Amino acid sequence: MDKKDIADLLNSRRPEPLGMEHRYAVLCPLVEVDGSWHVIFEKRSIHLRSHTGEVSLPGGRIEKGETPEEAAIRETAEELRISPSALEILGESDYLLTRQNQAVHCFVGILHGIRPEDICPEPGEVAYIFTVPLSFFLETEPEVHALEFEKIDDDSFPYELVPPDTTARFSNYRDRIFFYRGAEKEEQIVWGMTAKIMYGVAQRLKVGE
């Protein structure tokens, strides 16, 4: 392997975070309600195996050979049961890296010719949808609460392989959990990963104000 081989291999793909296990894509879908933009959120079905009953944006895992944008469009069309041709992608916001080594890409798009009240989402995945004015996220700072995860001692971990003079430490982990209050119903509070994604969207949109 010569210098050119090494350079070609390094430059043949876009760098990704180390240890990333899965990639997902979501859409922040905008729809016009009474002359202003609203974000469509999903209340996830109780029949799902994970994140049951949570508030989320439409989206899911990126399939092999699929771009993040294509995944966001496909998942949104499937979950909201609308035509992909009704979606216009405006751009991509910052993406999120989770504690579970997952990357979540977020796109912002418009639903053309569709009213929220006419959407009949896929019942196996979505209990119902609701909307929140986009201006709410632009004008409201989320509540941020720290949640600490304790280190679990495990006798099977090979601590003897860690050099005794190292400065590496195994400590507790603290995460920041975001909450957006203001929903009409408590069950519709936007929080957790979805709130963190919406905070990122708001920060990107406020740059030009």
Layout of secondary structure:
Layout: H1 3-11, E1 22-33, E2 36-44, E3 55-56, E4 59-61, H2 68-80, E5 87-92, E6 96-97, E7 102-111, E8 126-133, H3 134-139, E9 143-149, E10 173-180, E11 190-191, H4 192-206
Parallel strand pairs: 1-7
Antiparallel strand pairs: 1-2, 1-4, 2-3, 2-8, 5-7, 6-7, 9-10, 10-11
What would you note in describing this structure?
The protein has 209 residues and is α+β, with helices and mostly antiparallel strands. It is 21% helix and 33% strand. It contains four helices and eleven strands, in the order αββββαββββαβββα. It has helices spanning 3-11, 68-80, 134-139, 192-206; strands at 22-33, 36-44, 55-56, 59-61, 87-92, 96-97, 102-111, 126-133, 143-149, 173-180, 190-191. The strands form two sheets. Strands 1, 2, 3, 4, 5, 6, 7 and 8 form an eight-stranded mixed β-sheet that branches. The protein has a three-stranded antiparallel β-sheet with strand order 9-10-11. The radius of gyration is 20 Å and the shape is globular.
